[in-house]
Design brief:
By secondary structure, this protein is an alpha+beta fold. The chain has helices spanning 26-48, 95-107, and strands spanning 6-11, 14-20, 54-57, 68-72, 77-86, 90-93, 113-122, 125-129, 132-135, 139-145, 152-155, 160-164, 167-171, 174-175. Helix content is 19%, strand content 42%. The strands form four sheets. The chain has a six-stranded mixed beta sheet, sandwiched between helices.
């Protein structure tokens, strides 16, 4: 096994730290995962801040659970939420993640209003290349998934498409009014 060469990393005009050459992109992957976890925590905190709702972040992606489970006992509502965040122009949700959310909603079918929500957050900086970003408006979308599970993509403009065999077909998903203040584009 060879040694890794340590080289200085100069970003935005100054020395920002050291990184290991040939790290296989692990640093960037970890950053993207942390952004996703932070978005899940933010959503749970927003629901819990309303006083009527209780929201729980349910753990790691390998457990077969939704990202967030939010319950409003006074109104008999339950939301199984799949949260996606990123700096690109579109965010992808695999069918199996939608399916597991639907299973959780069906498990609590005694609740009057069980819904699968897809929560999308497009960051205020757009990635244009390795380590290069352009400023843009931060946008959040909360869509209600009401059909059969399918691979889907949400664009920066809030349009949702079903992905089948490499092609996109537009689908209409209702916006879900949230019980907290959002950063939604009007």
């Amino acid at each position: 096994m060879g040694y890794l060469q340590i080289t200085p990393c100069i970003l935005t005009g100054g020395i920002r730290g050291w990184y290991m050459a040939r790290n296989g992109g692990r640093r960037g992957a970890r950053l993207r995962r942390q952004r996703g976890y932070r978005w899940e925590e933010t959503l749970a905190d927003r629901f819990n801040g309303t006083g009527k709702w209780r929201a729980f972040r349910l753990g790691s992606p390998s457990t077969g659970l939704p990202d967030i489970l939010a319950v409003c006992p006074s109104e008999g509502l339950i939301y199984a939420i799949e949260a996606k965040s990123g700096s690109g122009m579109s965010l992808y949700v695999p069918a199996d993640q939608i399916r597991r959310c639907k299973e959780w909603v069906d498990t609590f079918s005694g609740m009057a209003g069980g819904q699968v929500l897809l929560a999308f957050k497009f960051l205020s900086k757009k990635r244009t290349g390795p380590g290069r970003y352009v400023q843009r408006e931060l946008r959040e979308y909360y869509k209600v998934w009401d059909g059969d599970a399918a691979d889907c993509v949400c664009t920066y403009d809030g349009d949702v498409f079903e992905r089948t065999g490499g092609s996109r077909r537009p689908i209409r998903l209702a916006e879900c009014p949230m019980p907290f203040r959002t950063r939604r584009r009007t």
